[in-house]
Amino acid sequence: MATSWPKSLENFEMMEPCRIIGVLDNGSRSLTADALAHLRQAEVVIGGSRLLALLADAIAPSAERRDLTGQLSQVPVWIDDGQQAGKKVVVVATGDPLCHGIAHFLIGKLGRERLDILPNLSMLQLACARFGLAWQEVRIGSVHSRDVGEWLCGADARHGLYRLLQLLRQSPLTAVLTSPDNTPDRIARMLQLETLSEDYDIAVLSRLMQAQEANSGWLPIDEAAGRRFDYPNIVLIRRKPVKKEALFGLPDQRYQQRKPDKGLITKREVRAVSLARMALKPNSIVWDIGAGSGSVGLEAARLCPQGHVYAIEKNAEDAAIVTANRSSLRVSNYTLRLGRAPDGLDSWPDPDAVFIGGSGGELRDLIVLCLNRMRDEGQLVMNFATLENLAAATEVLKTTGADWDVVQLQAARSKPILNMNRLQAENPIWIVCAQCGASQESKHE
Fold first, then answer.
1. Which candidate in 100, 311, 356, 383 could, as Cys together with 297 as Cys, close a disulfide (CB 3.0–4.6 Å)?
2. How wide is the angle at C-alpha 178 spanned by C-alphas 129 and 25, nearest 5°?
């Protein structure tokens, strides 16, 4: 149950509830007789400047008007003051106040018992009606907030467009509530930067229920990125059918690799076992240290659609290859840093899993750092091809108190010879796994 605010208020069940009334952009004509009566009788009316002007003819001249624009935190105070004074209080909001609206915020501050919600049609319903779309299958996103700035490729959840981008990748049809700053063309430019222009169409419905209502129809992303649209508006984005690939264990040749040198890639068989030992969850935060071609981190990102992968690679040529593979796999929950670990790792959030594919000579310090930073029951997985690195890793693990084990993996792949096939061995790899806070007893005590 929501905590009542403020705690000093008692017997509020004896007071008349604050009405939160949903309004469309044709003003008082969109209201039911009951909602209109509450609005006309209100002694305090709270709303954004645009709605207060739109409803001016339905608000009593004697009513106190409070403009909430830029003052959202004051709205519970204004409601409380009005109720304590025994006044009839109304809050007006666009469409359905419980669909990315103010009602949820006020319930959290004041409690459900002090509010009476009178919803209208949502903007989502109206937009889908214009296209004849079954709106129960639409996913809803919102950038109806402060100016979050243009999208930056590789940005993480701290960017205000990040959640929308993840939603668009997972949803065949998305409706997006915008703001004067976070506009349809900004969303389209984000898709351009992520090389997704060919994968989506966009439609913008502006000034719904007004005389200037406009419907752009379905547009290519590249066209929408260069256009401005009247506000207020709602955006529909549909994803075109795309070929789906396996989430992990992709063929080695699926990735660009450094040539003519031997490709820096964790081979398919080792990659699959390493990812399994990382014990990933949909929302895992993952570190990939020594990204190489990016195969492990990129597949981890695909396995963690609500999480994020932070990768670092010291070689500029390899970092460029990782960026190309990120684009090819259409992964967006992935941030790459060009540099040598541990530089920059202090700015990353604590991980649920860490993969070390290359250490740049800092192996001992990296193991200690990663174990100290990992969340409870986090998994550290390391791949080694040399005895020296294996020995260095196990020696430092013995001093940490972590639970750890080693798996040697050597795959052999079939190769044609005349009209037959033989097996050709790949280099053996040691997979070293360590876990802090595990419940099982260490095998190496």
1. 311
2. 55
Per-residue pLDDT at 194: 94
Per-residue tokens: 408: 């040697």
Which CA distances in Å does 165 have to 141, 143, 144, 153? 9, 11, 15, 11
> Using CB atoms within 10 A of its CB, is residue 293 exposed (0-12), middle (13-18) or buried (19+)?
buried
105, 114, 199, 252, 292 from 355: Cα distances, Å: 40, 51, 31, 18, 12
Label residue 194 exposed, middle or buried (CB < 10 Å: 0-12, 13-18, 19+). buried
Distance CA(412)–CA(385), nearest Å, equals: 16
Tokens of 94: 């666009």
Instruction: Give dist(CA 264, CA 192) in Å, integer.
Output: 29
Q: Answer for the pair 220, 185: CB distance below 8 angstroms, yes or no.
A: no
Looking at the chain, the number of H-run helices and the number of E-run strands are: 13, 20
- Rg (alpha carbons) of the chain, rounded to whole number: 28
DSSP helix/strand/coil, 388: helix
Q: Distance between CA atoms of 67 and 71, rounded to whole angstroms?
A: 8
Q: Is pLDDT of 261 > 90?
A: no
Q: What is the pLDDT of residue 442?
A: 41
Residue 413: both structure tokens together: 């792949």
Q: What global pTM score does this model have?
A: 0.85
pLDDT of residue 12: 58
Amino acid in position 297: G
Short-list 172, 170, 169, 160, CA closest to 191: 169
Per-residue pLDDT reduced to its tens digit, 138-193? 999 999 989 999 999 999 999 999 999 999 999 999 999 999 999 999 999 999 99
Q: Look at residue 242 in the predicted model and tell me its pLDDT.
A: 82
Q: What share of the chain is helix, strand, coil (3-state, %, to 5)?
A: 35, 25, 45
245/236 Cα distance (integer angstroms):
26
Q: How far apart are CA 221 and CA 151, in angstroms?
A: 15
Q: Could you tell me where the DSSP H helices lie in 26-158?
A: 33-41, 49-54, 75-84, 102-110, 123-131
